[in-house]
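Milestone M4 deliverable, item 7.
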Amino acid sequence: MKTGKLEPQGLERLVFTRTGAYRPEVVLGPRVGEDSAALDLEGELTVVTVDPITGADTGAGALAVHVTCNDLAATGAEPVAVLLTLLLPTTAGEALVEEIMESAHRAALQLGVALVGGHTEFTPGLTQTVVCAAAVGRAPRPRLLPSGGARPGDALVLVGEAGMEGTAILAHDFAGVLGARLGEVALREAQAYDGRVSVVRSALDAAASGATALHDVTEGGVLGASYEMALAAGAGLVVDTGAIPVGEVTRQIARLAAIDPFYLISSGALLIAAPDGEGMVASLRARGHAAAVIGRFTSGGMRLTCGTALGPPGADELWRARRQLERLSSS
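Output delivered:
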């Protein structure tokens, strides 16, 4: 049973052989004894973010990379580098370190970002692995887009579908019960959603197409993120839930788990404010992104088209789904 930091030999073998893409901006990279990385961004804005991954077992490394890079891209910034902190239970082994780093490495290569540092240790008292990621990006000053940039009259556009990340997490972590209840074809379709959690390309394309604000959809789902976006802008919002795309397999899992997919964690989905919603949709579709207008910012309150008030999100539906699926697994 291991406790404490991963030893230098383990770092060299399991971590430093998986450092993502080469980036010329990296002038000081990961190595034993270095606690910081250095990036030369040539005078552009440096954009940073940090996020933990706590609700997923499978693919946590890739999720950490994608989620933080999504945050950067949602400001109009190009992701450059990611730092990972891995906190593992003392009952875990080096194979888990290798699995997490391999998935992070593949995601970093896919996005063209470097993995430049972090921390890895076996921590007493943990019952599950916690992966924390910090990411650094670059943006020309005129391209920077805050989440609160929407204006009354702007359309609210959604790229992707509601609940994609939650669908993938549940399909991997509860493969037995979902395969038995929904069938293997639906299970494989749901698990494949983990390949759709990046919004980097769609966010940068939306920024170039005239977006006034961007917000990637994470905990709290599409409706939670919509509320956050309007709140940041000091604007009202009307959301047409009937216009929000939801995959059929997500609907099936939501029914089985007794949850609302509109409040399910949804990395891979992107909210966009734009003066011309249909023009934004056409531009994004021409670049290969599935997009739809799902609402409009106003000068009034926040509500759904059915008249229900739109309020701050509570706990993500992922946690309720996990409890329900655990009960079904043990029954």
